[in-house]
Amino acid sequence: MISTQLNSVQQHQTGNVDANEIDKFSQLAHKWWDKESEFKPLHDINPLRLTFIDSYAHLANKKILDIGCGGGILTEAMAKAEAQSVTGIDLAKKSLKIAQLHALQEQLSNISYRLISAEDMASEMSAAFEVITCMEMLEHVPDPGSIVRACGKLVQPGGIVCFSTINRNPKSYFQAIIAAEYLLKLTPRGTHDFRKFITPAELARLCRQAGLEWLGCSGFTYNPLSKQYRLTDSMDVNYMVACRRP
Length: 246
Fold this sequence. Notes:
The protein has an eight-stranded mixed sheet. 43% of the residues are buried. The protein has one domain (4-244): Vaccinia Virus protein VP39 (Rossmann fold). It is α/β, with parallel strands linked by helices. Helix content is 37%, strand content 24%. Helix 2 crosses helix 3 (73-80), helix 5 (118-124) packs parallel to helix 6 and helix 6 crosses helix 8 (200-209). Helix 4 links the parallel strand 2 and strand 3 (111-115).
């Protein structure tokens, strides 16, 4: 039986939200599970994200929080990796509704969703989770440091936090915006704002300030000929980071 929280979405208010970003993803909410839609890149990289996260967090039997879960693509993958429980949170109500419905269709009993900010969740449930993921979200909020600090409060001592975001340099501007949004049309125009991209050094500093120890990292690369993604040592554009709370 699906957790009753699926049908009891709760809303809290936060200042760390860009209304335009929420509206952008809300308008696309019905396409979250269409693997040929604007969300195709997320579906394509999801197995790579899951592999990276599991290599550090060992997801089976863990209590997990997925911040900025959207329609639940990664949330469901972690639930199917035999997690004890996965809670997905987001501030886009329409996306959460899609996530709820899909979880019901998949008969996933270890998922719940809430309409709540990371900061408010941290005030409610300090040190409540063994694993926290925050993927492709930091570059969409006004204050990414606030999210990282919330993660530091939400994770248990010894727990794992995984982030993914986009580096800020000329190469990332060309690949993540010019190529992805205009030339290859992998994502809709206006998906990203180059000014909000975050360098690994900046993210490392935010993690240290939040009391998180940097464990490892990996980048993504995309081959436009084979139309496939793979993990790489280069963090020039898209990259993932694993941290631990000592």
